[in-house]
Amino acid sequence: MPDTTTTTSPGEYLLIRNAAEKERLEMQFQVWQAHLGYLLHPTIKTHEHMRIADVGTGTGAWLREVAKTLPETCQLDGFDVSDALFDGRLSQVQNISFRLHNILRPFPEDLVGKYDIVNVRLLAVALSSDEWVPAVRNLIALLKPGGRLQWSDCAPQEGVIKTPSGVTPVHTKRMMEMFHKMLAALGKTPEVHRLLDIFQQCGLVSCEEEILTFEKPKVRDDLNLTIANVMAHGLAAAFELHKLEGIQSEQQITEMRDGVLDDLRTTDCFFSYDVHVVLGQKPL
Q1: Closest by alpha carbon to 204, among 278, 130, 124, 152?
Q2: How sure is the predictor about 87, in pLDDT bands with cuts at 50, 70 and 90?
Q3: Where in this chain does the record put each Methyltransferase type domain (predicted)?
Q4: What is the pTM of this model?
């Protein structure tokens, strides 16, 4: 009988850290950049001796690219609960460092109040409903007075399938429903729409939110592939870690993903997501 465990450990990444996930994250990063058009929000001012933290850095793609836009006198630090996905080549870049840390734990005292900017992206599949506020409080602790927190995320459960042809993408609809059910069962809740309120509740000032719809035609194929893969990788992780009902084998997940990709090719459907970029400043 399948194990129907419905909880995960705090901040648990609901994807398997392997080469395929590393490749997916790189494509996802490029898709996000094509829509956002910036690494640091245009309202964030930079200077020659900034210290910047990227929390939940994954491969370090954001650090890699932001380093190209700033003087080498800026210090860029990546944090993650695992270094399995981190691009080791970045360790050779003089002003980039990497440290292991769980966002739900207080940061070491030597880092408290040291950062001009803290960047976060895509933690919705890692955090449960009661973990968003503690995560924000820990991030705020990193900031200097006047420092800025930038968080970009989307709620996987709130994505939609656009169907210009009017044909129902049966495989895509089924896999999305299973993916959403799995997220709910494991407590990965879409609190993204509350981020602005959470920033204000935690004492940040000058808070603002920008909501962008991700569905640009020029990167639509890459977005479709990224979403199909994140659903497949998420279900595979749930199968490996929790043996959720409705998933009998990894082969079943592969076949579901292939069905989604077939839908995308034959019905002209595509995924669309609203992405929230939320900014806040630590009081002076």
Answers
A1: 278
A2: confident
A3: 54-149
A4: 0.89
